[in-house]
Design goal:
The complex is a heterodimer of chains A (377) and B (277).
Chain A (H helix, E strand, L loop, with lengths): L27 H24 L7 H4 L3 H6 L11 H36 L11 H15 L5 H7 L3 H21 E2 L2 E2 L1 H22 L5 H12 L7 H17 L4 H7 L3 H6 L4 H23 L5 H13 L3 H25 L8 H23 L3
Antiparallel strand pairs in A: 1-2
Helix pairs in contact in A: 1-4, 1-15, 4-10, 4-13, 4-14, 4-15, 5-7, 5-8, 5-9, 5-13, 7-8, 7-13, 10-13, 11-15, 14-15
Chain B lengths: L14 E11 L2 E12 L3 E5 L6 H8 L6 E6 L2 E2 L5 H7 E4 L11 H6 L9 H14 L15 H15 L12 E5 L7 H16 L3 E5 L3 H7 L2 E6 L2 E7 H4 L2 H8 L3 E5 L6 E5 L6
Parallel strand pairs in B: 3-8, 3-9, 6-7, 7-8
Antiparallel strand pairs in B: 1-2, 1-4, 4-5, 9-10, 11-12
The chains are: A mainly alpha (377), B alpha/beta (277).
Chain lengths: 377, 277
């Protein structure tokens, strides 16, 4: 037994006897290793997704040319590289991979934050209707952007649709919180049921917009239903990236608060967390990330529920590690799913939402069954 | 970095002074006109029948509920202090604690280490020692949800201890422990262990305020006792002033008698003869 090595300042210190109890229960080394591994896998997945497609492209040969071209703002193919390959990479696959990474990270982190906020592993923007609300906001601008909302469209430009989706998502989240939470306690049953009702309501409103839409708009609207990264381009990346990056950068500051919130709102406050502020910021970030994702890729479901849950099972629920790991795994899974979506029935393409739903929906049911055994709804 | 505790000069720095405090939910008063003063260095128990407002009073004192009147903790009005500031000054053990995700024991206890100046090593040492103090040494890696109710309660206590580790902060400001029925789900050995721990904390200069149901444990460990009934103060005083058969019988509307073991100065509360009829 070593002596007391605590900062003993008071002669009347309470803890007289000491001892070196190494902390056996720490999952932090594992979590850090997992994040390092996920970072590597994310890089490899991106490379693979760039290489795979109707035409195979030797990505590793192209890669060294990329930084120079970007710096020179030169869109032309470098010497010794086929123009076709260069254009496929730069104009089709790279924006799609970047968008997939951003959306995957945003959806997974939004899910993790929402689950921390509602203190429940089943809370997810897709399931509780936040995505549907965001979809309504986006649809409003897509259909009415050239008519009633033209002035707003003119001012906001490419950010109009993401912003509208953000507002739609925000309103839905606030309503959900109002309905599902009483005295700091979230009733899961109420939450899920309210989510169904809000989702149906916003879905119906989106449905009404169909009657005001022309052919092109109809096709755009249909794409919300299942979600897709088809039609990714640099403009879409530019419209979603700022919001998603702001969210990804600010979310680590919530980690300590969300950890405290696992104790409940009262106890979180007792350990010095400003709970109301934490809730406000969380809701804002969830709505922003969901809105930006939905605006560029429609309602891709289940990423936000599967990713954080898998990670909690392996590295534990500590949000300091859960949030960055979710961002990485979300990006990996979405890029992988998208690569599958565009190759499995080539030359046609599946909406990516079909793939995430096929994988995610059974998973959701599995969590539900497991959880029912533990605590009931 | 957390702000340093302000020191208020004089007597009030080491007191919890409750003056005509009241809490109402809507227009229904839950507690009213509660006045008493608890001192650092002492174990103050709050007793009274169920529904007498003990927990409500505790929640008002810990800053969780809005109150009327005045509750000065270390000379400062509790209701005006920020969550961060209060967190350095006092720890709170709630009655029951559910945790939403499968954290393990060391992660739960670690939530109490709010002093971010602590390095990783001293942090995990503190977690280990706190667990040792509540009799759960070696439980670090266990999942919280898989523990028994009594073990969970002791894990929570270890978390609270980590938060207010030194009973007297730098500069001499005493810290406070607020405990809501800290031993209600424990077996008799751990009841005594936890009560001894709380009494030690007080003896080391900290303040302890605990809502208690067990009158005999209260008699054995409390220095001062507040008796509540119907949301009001029935009595407040040193243990021997309050531990009287007539007063307790009145508080609980049940005939109680006091007895004593030989060579013990601790009274024992028992149902009065004939109370079973």
């Amino acid at each position: 037994m070593s002596g007391v090595t605590l900062p003993e300042r008071s002669a009347r210190s309470f803890f007289r006897f000491g001892g070196s109890h190494a902390c056996e229960g720490s999952r932090e080394p594992l979590a850090r290793a997992a994040i390092a591994l996920l970072t590597v896998v994310a890089g490899l997945t991106m490379l693979a997704s760039l290489a795979i497609g109707p035409i195979s492209i030797p990505v590793l040969d192209l890669l060294p040319h990329l930084p120079g071209r970007v710096l020179a703002a030169d869109a032309g193919a470098p010497e010794g590289v086929s123009v076709r390959d260069w254009i496929v990479i730069m104009e089709i696959r790279l924006p799609r991979v970047v968008l997939g990474a951003l959306v995957g990270a945003a959806l997974a982190v939004a899910g993790a934050v929402m689950q921390g906020l509602f203190r429940n592993p089943l809370a997810d923007p897709g399931i509780v209707g936040v995505s549907a609300g965001a979809g309504l906001g986006a649809a409003l601008f897509i259909v009415l952007g050239n008519a009633v909302l033209a002035p707003a469209m003119a001012v906001l430009g490419i950010y109009a649709v993401p912003l509208a989706a953000f507002v739609g998502g925000l309103i839905t989240t606030l309503l959900l919180y109002r309905i599902g939470t009483r005295g700091g306690i979230t009733s899961v049953a109420t939450l899920l049921l309210a989510g169904i009702a809000l989702g149906a309501l916003t879905g119906a409103m989106t449905g009404l917009l169909v009657y005001a839409a022309d052919d092109q708009q109809l096709r755009d609207l249909q794409f919300w239903g299942l979600g897709s990264l088809a039609g990714s381009n640099w403009e879409k990346v530019a419209s979603a990236a700022p919001i998603i990056l702001i969210m990804l950068v600010s979310v680590p500051f919530l980690a300590r608060g969300l950890n405290g919130l696992t104790l409940g709102e009262a106890a979180a406050s007792h350990i010095g967390i400003r709970v109301q502020r934490l809730k406000n910021i969380s809701i804002l970030l969830v709505a922003a990330a969901t809105g930006a994702s939905v605006a560029v890729s429609g309602g891709i479901g289940f990423v936000g529920i599967v990713v954080p849950h898998l990670l909690r099972l392996t590295i534990g629920p500590d949000h300091r590690y859960l949030l960055p790991a979710s961002a990485l795994l979300g990006a990996i899974l979405l890029i992988a799913a998208d690569t599958l979506a565009r190759t499995i029935v080539a030359p046609a393409e599946l909406p990516i939402g079909i793939i995430t739903a096929f994988a995610g929906a059974p998973f959701f049911l599995w969590i539900l069954l497991r959880k029912r055994g533990l605590t009931g709804l | 970095m957390l702000p340093h505790l302000k020191l208020v000069a004089g007597q009030s720095a080491s007191e919890l002074r409750v003056d005509r405090a009241g809490v109402a939910i809507g227009r229904t008063p839950i507690i009213r006109e509660i006045t008493f003063t608890a001192r650092a260095g002492e174990f103050t128990a709050i007793i009274g029948p169920s529904g007498s407002g003990k927990t409500t009073l505790l929640k008002a004192m810990t800053g969780e509920l809005a109150y009327s009147g005045s509750i000065l903790l270390a000379g400062l009005e509790t209701g005006q202090l920020s969550a961060e500031y209060l967190a350095q000054l006092r720890g709170v053990l709630p009655q029951a604690s559910q945790i939403s995700f499968p954290l393990n024991v060391s992660e739960v206890v670690g939530l109490g280490v709010i002093d971010r100046r602590q390095g990783r090593a001293s942090r995990s040492r503190r977690i280990g020692e706190a667990l040792c103090r509540v009799g759960l040494a070696g439980f670090e890696g266990r999942t919280y949800q898989e523990l028994s109710g009594g073990e969970q309660q002791r894990v929570q206590l270890a978390r609270v201890l980590c938060q207010v580790w030194e009973p007297v902060a730098d500069g001499g400001q005493p810290r406070w422990l607020f405990l809501d029925e800290p031993v209600s789900s424990l077996d008799i050995k751990h009841q005594f262990q936890i009560m001894r721990l709380a009494a030690d904390y007080a003896a080391s200069g900290g303040g302890v305020v605990a809502v208690m149901h067990d009158l005999n444990l209260t008699a054995a460990f409390a220095d001062r006792i507040l008796v509540m009934k119907n949301g009001r103060r029935l009595s407040f005083g040193a243990r021997d002033e309050v531990m009287r058969a007539d007063l307790l019988s009145d508080a609980y509307d049940f005939p109680l008698a006091l007895t004593r073991f030989e060579e013990s100065d601790v009274p024992l509360v028992v149902p009065a003869p004939g109370s079973d009829r």
